[in-house]
Design brief:
Layout lengths: L2 H7 L16 H8 L19 H13 L3 H18 L3 H17 L3 H17 L8 H16 L3 H18 L5 H16 L3 H18 L7 H16 L3 H17 L8 H14 L3 H19 L4 H19 L43 E3 L17 H20 L8 E4 L4 H4 L16 E4 L1 H16 L5 E3 L5 E3 L32 E4 H9 L10 H6 L2 H8 L2 E4 L4 H10 L3 H29 L2 H22 L2 H4 L5 H12 L9 H17 L12 H24 L14 H5 L13
Parallel strand pairs: 3-6
Antiparallel strand pairs: 1-4, 2-3, 2-7, 4-5
Helix pairs in contact: 2-5, 2-7, 3-4, 4-5, 5-6, 5-7, 6-7, 7-8, 7-9, 8-9, 9-10, 10-11, 11-12, 11-13, 12-13, 13-14, 14-15, 23-24, 23-28, 24-27, 26-27, 27-28
Amino acid sequence: MDEEALLKQFAAQFAHGPDDADDTDAAAAAQGADSTANQVADDADQSPATFDTQQFLNGLDAIFDRHTAATEAGPYLEQAMVDAENAGDEAGLLTVLNETMGFYRSQGRHKENQWIVQRALELAARMGLTTGTSEAWAITLINCATSMRAAKQYDQAEDLYHQAQSVCRHSLAPTDRRLAALHNNLSMLYSETNRPDKAELELREALRIIEASSVNPDADIDVSSSHTNLALTLLTEHKLEDAHWHAAKALEIYRTGHLEHSAHYASALAGFAQVCFAERRYADAVTGYRHALAVIEECYGKDTDYWRITADNLRQAEEAAAQAGVTVDNAGVAGDAGALPQSGSRLPNSPAQGKTGANAASSPSTVSVSTGSAGAAEAVSACPVSGLKLARAFWTQMGKPMIAAKYPQYAGRIAAGLVGHGSECYGFDDAYSQDHDFGPRFCLWLTDEDYAAIGEQLEVDYEALPRKFSVDAQGRVTFEAHARSDASGAFPSAGAGSPVTPRAQGANRRDGVFRIGDFFESITGYRTAPAQTAPHEWLMLQESTLAAATNGEVFADPTGLFSKTRQGFKNMPDDVRLALISKRLGMIAQAGQYNLPRSLKRGDGAAAWLSIHEFVQATASLVFLVNVPMVVGYMPYYKWQFAALRKLSGSMFALLPNVGEQLETVMRLSSAACYGGAGFGEGGKGAAPAIEKINDIVEQIAVDIVKELKREHLTTSGETFLEWQRPYVEDHIASDDPVLKSL
């Protein structure tokens, strides 16, 4: 199966199963199963007709493309099962069973589907798949688990998901979208079993994987569906504003990519309508549900759970609108560009969710903030929202309309977002971050050609944007679109400014208009990422530099060029990653396992303290490298190193999740271990317990690292002095370039 077809089936809301976040690829299951399937007899006289898996998939796609699945897909799948079985093609039969599971779920045929699940598991066992870690087995487990979840057989579903999770660690790449499917579907199980906190973690992990694997996240259906799923989960947690943002972002992706004719668009509309209902915006909710129903009926027919749930949600929205005295246009098509309805896979029918907007009805209190000409905050009080959220609001309310009005011919070519240096780009800013370089800002990224044509004037127009805003009790940001209040072009200062420091001005400015290449060159020294075949260049780039080039958020990227360039810096060659892992193993061994205990025995507290520093830096870096930067990002510079490490460690499927906390314990004990002894008149007694604890933690971390290296098949050795693990890791480096190998 080619990549395009593969990704199509991995969309976060699979076309053959609209009630689910994802179905995994049955064709891939067939390919993985071929090596273990029973072979058809060579003797043509004794062999039944062959089964063409690709032809089967093409035919099924054609049924969905012409929107006749409601009447044609069932008989087609049933006949395909017979044909594959008659042909003795077990791999082909497994493909058909995987596809059937998805379709039966979409039709609410859950009782029949349990038989299909059982048959698929028995077939996989007969083929010898269940004792290994093959891709085919992983895919089948995920589809079976999702089917059991849809049938509300939650215990069996969770067990199957956990089996799939174990297999996927070995069979799928860290950026494989089927991993995102697993996270997405697990989130749905957690939602349905009243564990919304776990559901949210799973969805955020899914979204990160999908965005990391996407060339253009702003026009990717999979990204959109993940945003909708996250919005609906946030809704159950009463995080109304975040839910609205994600639901609207999902719809924006459909419109950016001109994907409104996709069958998945229905659930995007319905997902946004659900959020509107919670916000008591009943007219928008009715409009979204009506539009969604029209798409569902066209693509899947009326005789589905999908249609019935959405119709019931529409009825509730219409009743609420009538009770509120709201008149809804019978045309039923949402037209508010500021309230984009969006897609997702789940259409919750809980009336309780419709009440989550109650808090939003309370009378808002606002905080007004104005900024000077340099963008510095002259706030009445600290801005209560994050820098990224402020930046997105500034773009949406001020920047985007300005470009549409003044540069309409370029509106489809300009990328916008906030990436680079600054606490807010990492999402770690707080009230203490607002005393410098804080305020409404974003970046506009242009090609060289477009910059030559409009760059200077666009910069002037960007600087002229009004920066006075208010924030209400729900955290909604509103900008005042009036002219500046004095001849100097700045609002009168309230005296509590946020000065723009020299490091954020001139060539080092952090916002405004940039050539794409210039922007990345100012951070990394490279206009585009080094070639995959240039490991020496990658090794010269600090992880913190790569973190600054790939952090933040992209709000819009119509051409995908900025995102593609940014993605290049995320895509560290695996040989380089392994070489860095080897280097980190060497430093952990040298600083933590060798020099630290020797320095402590000598009573050289300063040397011991520096050894701890090197050990902590190397270990934290290794955690990010093991978890794969393409998926989790790079370790940022020292100030936010532990904030990022805590965030990573809190992820449901983080590798080495306990190491961050162990490192913080080492750091807490370091003062007593290095200086709490004789130098403080304690005769050495005060240091001993801390030294013992630190040494124990260092060795436990080494043990955990070796276990992970073994699980990743990067070593076969149980040696816990990590220097001796380096040759095993380096054996997996494919390149012969000596720069990648230790001396």
